[in-house]
Design a protein that fits this description.
- With 112 residues, this protein is α+β, with helices and mostly antiparallel strands.
- Helices cover 34% and strands 45% of the residues.
- A hairpin with a 2-residue loop joins strand 2 and strand 3.
Length: 112
């Protein structure tokens, strides 16, 4: 009986360390530097969006802040959307920055 309880406990503990693969869908925003014109800010945002589409797995993992997930695979950028915002740093000093909204998904392992 003691052996049976020990084996059952061991199997229970061993079964809990198996991980399953899940697909997570996420959104994030990347912000450009400040520019003197709206068109400069938008061009910089398009550069960021194009870079995301051609980035390697490790670059995307860093750019999209996925470092806290383990075993990240198959990162796919689904969509990017660009908006520009105007702001003042001082009276009569208007600056522009663009925001790249990124929708993406990736596979990761989730502990059961």
């Amino acid at each position: 009986m003691k052996k049976l309880i020990t084996i059952a406990t061991g199997l229970l503990l061993t079964g809990s360390v198996f991980a399953s693969t899940v697909t997570l869908h996420k959104n994030t925003q990347l912000v450009t530097a400040d520019y003197a014109s709206k068109s400069e800010a938008i061009n910089a945002a398009f550069d960021i969006a194009e870079t995301l589409k051609t980035s390697t797995h490790n670059e995307l993992r860093n750019d999209l802040s996925l470092l806290n997930h383990s075993f990240v695979r198959d990162i796919t950028v689904e969509q990017t959307e660009i908006t520009a915002e105007e702001f003042a740093v001082a009276r009569d000093d208007i600056q522009y920055r663009a925001i790249v909204k990124v929708t993406y998904h990736f596979d990761t392992e989730e502990q059961d």
